[in-house]
Amino acid sequence: MYVKGVGPKVGALLNKIGIFTAYDLLHYFPRKHLDYAAKTPICNLKVGEEVTIIGKILSLTYFTSPKRPNLTIITITVADETGVISITRFMGKSNRYMIERVKAQFPKGANIIISGVVKVDDYKRGFTVDKPEMEAVSGDIEECDSLHLNRIVPVYPVTENLNIKTLRRAINNALETHADHLDELIPEEIRKKYELTDKVIAIRQIHFPDSLQKLDEARKRLVFEEFFIMQLKLALIRKKQKTEAQGLTLNYIKGGLVDKFVDSLPFKLTGGQKDAFDEILADISKPEPMRRLLQGDVGCGKTVVAGMALLAAVENGYQGAIMAPTEILAEQ
After folding, report:
1. CA 150 from chain center: how many Å?
2. Mean per-residue pLDDT for 283-310?
3. Residues whose CB is less than 8 angstroms from the CB of residue 87 and which lie 6 or more positions away in sequence, other chains included
4. CB-based contacts of 277: which residues, under 8 Å, 6+ apart?
5. Could you tell me the residue ranges of all domains in the chain?
6. Are the C-beta atoms of 183 and 192 separated by less than 8 Å?
7. How far apart are the C-alpha atoms of 59 and 205, rounded to whole Å?
8. 5 in the Ramachandran plot: left (φ > 0), alpha (ψ -120 to 50) or beta?
9. What is the dihedral of CA 151, 152, 153, 154, to 10 degrees?
10. I want to staple 273 with a disulfide (CB 3.0 to 4.6 A). Which of 162, 198, 269, 285 is the partner?
11. CB-hemisphere CA count at 13 Å for 280?
């Protein structure tokens, strides 16, 4: 399917991140979102808070220590109407070309949006932003209304030479032309029961949410769908195994190895151990393979129950083994 803005060059870059169709684009979900609609003045910054700062670049400087030639420290100084903050970025094995590229990306006097968690700069003893997401913006930020500004903005994993703005535009174009053709996989009665939004709405809101609440609703819907499909697949596998696969039929032999083992124990089995073994015994006496997980707290007696099941196999003429993940557990 054709998507506006995706030519051969962009298509090749998208292929590197596993995107080959419009469906892939629609299901390439953001790794996080930045709230560019709500900004925090520099004077109101508090350590530990996640903020969005909108200001103007005053300067960009860089320094490479002779002792560590493979590390370049870049400092971007930004100001808004309430204060000034410095943002530090580190570049490994930088060269002149890379530094000039960063300077061109964040030119002096340009508007900039910075998002991240506030922390104290141990060197300058002032506030800075830890691992910031930054975008330089041409023109007046307050007058911009696009996919990239004045809204909750998606942040996607990208590859080299693939600009995140290009990816956003491609996904937005795919939403406009192909989202309405997506199949609704969850039945209406289930959606109503669990208060889930429609698939098309969820896909639109996970990429470009109208609010944080809409984003949470979209995430809830898409996570539910993922587990719903997984459970359906598991149910089909279980049904197929039950009707087609052939297992071993093991019969309990009264007075056999299991009974002798239980009688030799220096303690009596708990009610929980007896119930668990009875359920396992009921499973292994059927012709279809058993699918069961024995779960319990440390020291509750799971190994004894496993040993009883193993002996049930042995007294029916088969071999058995108990595997332990470590040598210490095997010795125990």
Report:
1. 26
2. 88
3. 75, 76, 77, 78, 114, 128, 129, 132, 134
4. 269, 305, 308, 309
5. 1-31+156-181, 37-144, 183-242, 257-331
6. no
7. 37
8. left
9. -160
10. 269
11. 21
Backbone angles phi, psi at 191, to 5 degrees: -60, -40
pLDDT, tens digit, for every residue of 214-226?
A: 999 999 999 999 9
Model confidence pTM above 0.70: no
Phi/psi region, residue 150 (left: phi>0; alpha: psi -120 to 50; beta: rest), is: left
Report the DSSP beta bridge partners of residue 152: 35
* C-alpha radius of gyration, the chain, whole number: 30
Q: What is the H or E stretch that residue 77 is in?
A: strand 71-79
The contacts of residue 273 (CB under 8 Å, 6+ apart) are: 301, 304, 305
Q: Which of 209, 158, 181 lies closest to 13 in space, CA to CA?
A: 158
pLDDT above 60: residue 145: no
Query: 10 Å Cβ neighbour count for 67?
Result: 6
Provide the CATH topology of domain 37-144: OB fold (Dihydrolipoamide Acetyltransferase, E2P) (2.40.50)
Q: If pLDDT is split at 50, 70 and 90, which confidence band does 236 have?
A: very high
The per-residue pLDDT for range 51-93, each reduced to its tens digit, is 989 899 999 998 887 888 788 889 999 999 999 999 988 887 6
| 37 or 265: which leads in pLDDT | 265
**CB-CB contact of 76 with 87 (8 Å):** yes
Q: Is 271 helix (H, G, I), strand (E, B) or coil?
A: helix
The residue count for the chain: 332
Phi first, then psi: what are they for 175, rounded to 5°?
-65, -40
Q: Are 138 and 57 in contact (CB under 8 A)?
A: no
Which residue in the block uniquely carries the two structure tokens 């930045």?
Answer: 34
**Residue linked to tokens 């910075």:** 114
Using the structure block, give the residue that is written with the tokens 């922390």.
119
Tokens representing residue 117 in the block: 């968690």
Helix (H, G, I), strand (E, B) or coil at 281: helix
